[in-house]
Task: structure prediction
Amino acid sequence: MTDIIVPRGQWEEDQEAALATWIYDDGATVQAGNIVCEIMVEKTSFELTAPADGILDIEVAEDQVVTPGQIIGTIV
Amino acid sequence: MLELCHALAPGQKVEECNGQAAIDADNLMIEQSTGQLIGGSRLRLWENERCLVTTKRFTRFPNYRETARRSAQRGWPVFVRSTGGTTVVHRPGVLNISLLTASENAVILPNQSYRELCDLLLEGLRKMGVEAELGSVPGSFCDGRYNICVEGRKLAGTASRIVRREGKSIHLCHASITVYGCCAEDASLVSKFERGIGHSTHIDHSSHISLKQVQLR
Result:
């Protein structure tokens, strides 16, 4: 099992980030490097990629606030 | 329109585009820039046909499909972009400016991703005798901290996208500036669409201003 983690150091600490979109549905098969979701900060979108091959297990819903270091899903 | 384009990028032509292809051209520019443009940038000026442009997030709202269908029937098809924010209007009279910059192994913060394009817009407007500033305009559609504002009203909206490709940081900043046309009608279209899909929104129809309105003052 590999965690999908919100990266650190990509935006200022006082800026709020939200999980904008999951590109794949919960339970989808993904490959390492696939863009799995987008995070939005100040109308700026960032892509997060799958850290491994496997099944996507979504833990944080769209529109939820996320913080650097937070686990938002896993690849099982 | 020509005066503004000349002030922003002398000699550069405005692409006359239509539909989703006009929006996708920005994504294509990102993918094509991988391995190129390090330390450089590429500017695109373009004008789209009548449409609403929303974000991927809104396509997941339960009433999205039906609302988009009705909007298209009224002559305003709905397309999807990959930068942030909410729904905006594209039409003749709204100039889109996309600036792509690539750098090697650098972390680009959101604030930095806006700086170059916002500076270009503010300087271009200054050349035309328009003093504008950056800021949020509560009540405007697709509001953000990096709007281009005149007298507290929104003249242009901005959004950006930061991606990593092959170890490189690429950021695309996009602005839509209302050069002419009815801002209140634009606001009404966005308001109707977003309420239709089930998104709670309050848009003040007087919160936007066109460049033509500014120049007539």
About this structure: Residues 24-76 of chain A form one domain. The mean pLDDT of chain A is 95. The beta strands of chain A are 2-5, 17-22, 29-30, 35-41, 44-49, 54-58, 65-66, 71-75. Chain A touches chain B at residues 9-12, 15, 20-21, 38, 40-47, 62-63 (CB under 8 Å).
